[in-house]
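Usage

Read records sequentially. Each one opens with the input sequence:
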Amino acid sequence: MFEEPCQRQLRQLCRYVTNDCFCSLVVSLVHSRLDYGNFILVGVPAYLQRRLQAVLNTAARLVFRLRCYDHETDAFAILHWLRLPERDNFKLALMAYRVLHGMAPEYLNQLVPLSDLPSRCRLRLSSTLQLLIPPYRLTTIGRRSFPVAASIVWNSLPVYLQSSSSLFTF
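and closes with the structure output:
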């Protein structure tokens, strides 16, 4: 959660700036921190997800000046924000799409093993759009690694999303 002094300071600041400026400020403060460690957040325990979700809830309340007992679901819809687990899955699927289409950073391309197929498709099974899940040893840490988590999320997507022709349509 936001520390109470930080939340109070932001509430005081909203009197001096426009609503759009205040919304941009809150979004940049909160989302930049969540996006910075995005792949680390995959598969974290539920109690940590609740705490991080509380930060997003507080940010939505700040933007719309809601009281603590008001629900923030409508605020999330208006702001086009996703809840934390959906946000993490979206970022993983997006990065998997970029890796498969050669648009990812080089260090992620190195993490993803190339298959021995003649077409050299990364992680992809030859007959389908499903990704191979690499073997892993440790069930908690191994499942949270990028190649494994991205493959699991990618395989759970519908076929029409997996076969998107461009990043915009994805």
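Summary fields computed downstream for this record:
- The radius of gyration is 19 Å.
- The chain has two domains: 4-81, 88-162.
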